[in-house]
Amino acid sequence: MEAYERWIRRNKHFVHKFDTLANYLTWLLPDEFAESEIWPEAVSSLVGMITTVNEYIIDTSPTEVHMRCAESSFIPLSLCLTLLKDLETSIEVVAEQLYGEKNKWNLIAITEAVKVCIRLAIFRNSGYKMLLQGGETKNAENDSDSFRPQQTKRQLDKPTGNEESGITKTLHLQNSGNLEDRAISALSSFSKNATMQHPQAIMEPPSKIVEKPSLRTFLSEKSICGGFFVTGEILFIIRPLIYVMLMRKYGTRSWFPWCVSLAVDLIGNSILSVTLMSQHSGKKQQLQSSDSEKDELKRRRMLWALYLMWDPLFTKHTRQRLESTQRLAQHVPILGFVAEKLVEIVIGVQSRYTYTSSS
Asked: What stretch of H or E contains 123?
């Protein structure tokens, strides 16, 4: 495995081009594969998982890999989450082929439950920071707060007992010898003290150790704001599982799963927004929101547009609007052809939960 990682890092430009080409080639599978939906999705998932692993190897240096291996012997949770998302469409297709349209939601619910567990673990391991890209991107904005280069410099500049004795000796020599002898003695004393007292501190900065707080510690430090923040983030994490469980019970024709999912999204996002905005109104800031976390909130709001693709809203309203727009544009030579293909693609994408799940 190490040899493969070294080869990937040495040939990262070739690997990027090859992965892109492989993803394009999945659209040109033979007719034998096109007769079944399982094989095209399986090949696409396999290519996606290989691409994900290659990108992870390229983006992580050997030092970071060794540090993560020291912390845990398992694959990083963010990588597991991305691999599962690459595989989930194939899981949905296999479930539909084997168990039918209605019973496929059982296997989808299991997949979403696994993703919820992984995201909760990432949320805990990160010290209860907001999940970026659903947990696939590490939120490390405030990890450097505990490391102060000025403190390290003051520690290096502060003389110890032996250093003080060396300086005293140097000053004594300055009063008793000529200029050349005093310069040689001072340089020798400085070199000896620097080598003996701080051999590692000069070569490299002290390693940064960031302790992740427990939930009780986090809530005690952040008080009520921390409780609201954790509640809003947990609602974001479990919302897909709630939607799938309701779809499994009520079906695609019911408005109840759609409304409950939207309500959970609105409540969770509102709690997070109000909690992070309220820190600036008080004298004491208890939560520090970074630019990436603000962008994450905007990204989550943009994902609400996918509700237009969910049944029963899509079947009763969105699809009719798209088809009426297509009929208006069909008399225009190029625009009519493009509109027809776009509607076909949208309808095909909407047929799969995993394509529009935003989870």
From this structure: helix 77-125
b/e burial code for range 196-216 (CB count within 10 A of at least 16 → b): ebeeeeeeeeeeeeeeeeeee
Nearest-angstrom CA–CA distance, 339 and 328: 10
Written as six digits, the tokens of 145 are 């707060």
pTM of the model: 0.75
- Provide CB contacts within 8 A for 213, sequence distance 6+: 127, 128, 221
Per-position pLDDT tens, the chain of length 359: 778 778 778 777 877 787 777 776 666 655 544 556 777 788 888 888 888 888 888 888 665 555 555 444 467 899 999 999 999 999 999 999 888 888 899 999 999 999 999 999 999 999 899 999 998 888 876 554 433 333 434 343 444 444 444 444 444 444 444 544 554 454 455 444 544 444 444 444 444 555 677 888 888 888 888 889 999 999 999 999 999 999 999 998 999 999 999 999 999 999 998 888 775 555 444 566 788 888 999 999 999 999 999 999 999 999 999 999 888 888 888 888 899 999 999 998 898 899 999 88
Residue with tokens 């909690």: 275
Note whether 356 and 310 are within 8 A (CB).
Answer: yes
CA atoms of 164 and 158, how far apart (whole Å):
10
315 Cβ contact partners less than 8 Å away, ≥ 6 residues apart: 252
Residues in the chain: 359
